[in-house]
Amino acid sequence: MATGHDAFVDGYPVGTWLANRRREARLVVGSQGALSDARKAALADVDPFWCPAWPLVWQRRYILLKRYLAAGGPVETEPGHMIAGEDVGAWLAHQLSHWDTFHEEQRRLLAELGVTLSGGGIQSAPRLTQDHKFMRNLAAAAAYAQREGHLNVPRKHIEITDGAEIKLGIWISNQRSRRARLHPQRIEALDQLGMRWNCSRRRGPPQPPPRAHDLPSTRPSATPARGLGRAVHAGPRGLVMVRRPGRAPRPAR
């Protein structure tokens, strides 16, 4: 039941409904709007961790790892291993490197999956390669695209992933500028998230209509034509050749 706000089942917004029940469950018992003990017990019968004491995003990734291991995946999952848009390998490394900061129940849940510390100490997170960093940032981009419905990330936007701050806006901008040098697989991965490589620049304000004195004049104008006694007038209906007054035509010889 570690679902997000946008989850629907048969058209019903079950994600929003669960979020409201979690909010009510955290209110003081007996206060107005607080969830009753009977309803808490009923939800706990479905999922004991429907309202965990830790962030819900941790519970979602734990469920992904649990399903992955149940399907035969190895516990020694390296960073960069993606499941449903999440870098489960990087998340697992984060759990090991921050083991002593987690809730006791979180550590118990991980231990049930076989995730334990080796050598009796805290393992340091492995140094990420460029491929691992790309996959980590791609996971942050996938989370943003799923939440916002697009990948037009503001340049100053920072996405929080596994407690780490990802400068997603700058990263997306860099991918656009480096597209010619990106590996085709990376381009394809970003395309699947709805990446727009050519962001159109903002158009300026609309120009005002031309003023009357800027329009070409429609008054007739006279232009002398070659030949004696004639002039060409340019009017609304085209060119008209007229005889000049005051000059008699030359007599024929």
Q: How would you describe this structure to a colleague?
A:
Helices cover 37% and strands 10% of the residues. The chain has 253 residues and is α+β, with helices and mostly antiparallel strands. It is globular, with a radius of gyration of 36 Å. About 8% of the residues have low confidence.
Descriptors for this entry?
three-stranded antiparallel beta sheet; 8 helices; 10% strand; alpha+beta; two-stranded antiparallel ribbon; 7 strands; 253 residues
Which helices and strands appear, and what pairs or packs with what?
Elements (H helix, E strand, L loop, with lengths): L13 H12 L11 H10 L9 H15 L11 E2 L2 E2 H10 L6 H9 L17 H19 L10 E3 L2 E3 L1 H10 L6 H8 L29 E4 L5 E6 L2 E6 L10
Antiparallel strand pairs: 1-2, 3-4, 5-6, 6-7
Radius of gyration over all CA atoms, rounded: 36 Å
How many DSSP H or I helices? 8
Structural classification: alpha+beta
Beta-strand portion reads 5-15%
Largest sheet: 3 strands, antiparallel
Overall outline: globular
Helix fraction by DSSP (H/I, runs of at least 4)? 25-40%
